[in-house]
Amino acid sequence: MEHPTWCDPTRCTADPTTQIDGYRLGAGGEHLSALVSLELTTCLRLSARSGTAWLSEAVAPWRCAPYLNVRIGETELSMAAEDAAPVLSALLALADLAVVRG
Ligand SMILES: [Zn+2]
């Protein structure tokens, strides 16, 4: 079994042997990255002052897409990393318009 380069072996639950006799939803575990802490103390209208983000990729007989996951309080958002990248780039470009550097 190959792990994605971002997979953290201490968090990875991938077990392709559970798929040998056929695919079963959720049975194969998933590759998981290390958790990234999100400092949100200056955010408004959130239920928590911090959050976490991580990558995940399910295990199936076919190639699965990596997902970006964000959890803030009881709310969790998951989005294909390929789709999340342009959204985050647009948000960064927007924030950069207002940030005075140097
Ligand atoms: Zn893994």
Descriptive terms for the model:
single chain, about 100 residues, alpha+beta, 5-stranded antiparallel β-sheet, binds zinc ion
Helical content class: 10-25%
Tally of distinct domains: 1
Q: List the bound ligands.
A: zinc ion
Q: Helix/strand-derived class?
A: alpha+beta
Strand content: 25-35%
So what's the overall shape? Answer: elongated
What is the overall number of helices?
Answer: 1
Write up this protein:
18% of the residues lie in helices and 27% in strands. The protein is of the alpha+beta class. It has one domain. Strands 1, 2, 3, 4 and 5 form a five-stranded antiparallel beta sheet that branches. The protein is elongated, with a radius of gyration of 17 Å. The structure holds zinc ion.
Secondary-structure topology with pairs:
Blueprint: E1 30-32, E2 36-39, E3 50-58, E4 67-72, E5 75-80, H1 81-98
The protein binds zinc ion.
Zinc ion is lined by residues 3, 7, 12, 14, 31.
What's a concise summary of this model?
The chain is 18% helix and 27% strand.
